[in-house]
Design brief:
187 residues, five-stranded parallel sheet, globular, binds flavin mononucleotide
Length: 187
């Protein structure tokens, strides 16, 4: 069974990012995948302090919600990275999460994440999807740096209010199809 982990970087529960990720995971489940959705904001992920002890001891010395996520990342086949656009970048929770992935940037740990699939998902109030370019580019380059495989991305512009994404039927359909794609074993 394929395991798909959805990480929601928005602090707004039941918001557009959450709805988008839920839709992707629904598609994946339709194809038989096992899915889990996690609110990064719930985990109170602390900032990476750059001590690099993870490179020496293979564990991060910071004791917080990230501990469990390292394990879940290693157990997953595909990871959905989702954040609303906040000032042309990720939310604080998503950035804190990405910073802590430095754990995987050493020869001892790199194989634990290399080759895993990734899907990127972003939402934004503005109508111009190009405004998400800095965020998408940052996520793409990080994913590539980690040796992960980008399977697809979805950008939903024009959603400001909580739940506004519900009226974007074609985007929700696209998200469902993306989920079906990643949910398939051996895809
Ligand atoms: C602090 C903050 C910064 C934001 N920055 C942007 C931005 O740069 N561009 C944009 O189009 N929308 C921006 N937005 C709007 C959100 O991206 C939009 O409301 C989105 O739907 C929120 O997703 P959520 O419902 O998952 O929280 C910002 C919102 C907040 C609260």
């Amino acid at each position: 069974v394929k395991k798909v982990l959805g990480l929601v970087g928005s602090p707004r529960k039941g918001g557009n990012t959450h709805i988008l990720v839920s839709q992707i995971l629904r598609g994946a489940r339709e194809m038989g995948a096992r899915t889990e959705l996690i609110y990064l904001g719930n985990l109170r992920i602390k900032e990476c302090d750059g001590c690099h002890s993870c490179w020496e001891t293979r564990t991060c010395i910071i004791n917080d919600g990230m501990k469990g996520i390292y394990k879940k990342l290693m157990e997953s086949d595909c990871i959905v990275l989702a954040s609303p656009l906040y000032w042309f970048g990720p939310t604080v929770a998503m950035k804190a999460f990405i910073d802590r992935l430095v754990y995987f940037c050493c020869s001892k740990n790199e194989d634990k994440i290399k080759g895993k699939e990734v899907v990127l998902a972003t939402v934004q109030a503005g109508e111009d999807a190009n405004e998400a370019n800095p965020l998408i580019r940052m996520l793409e380059m990080s994913v590539r740096y980690l040796g992960m495989k980008l399977k697809g991305k979805i950008i939903v512009p024009g959603v400001g209010e909580k739940g506004a994404i519900k009226s974007k039927k074609s985007k929700l359909k696209q998200a469902l199809n993306l989920g079906r794609l990643i949910g398939r074993l051996g895809s």
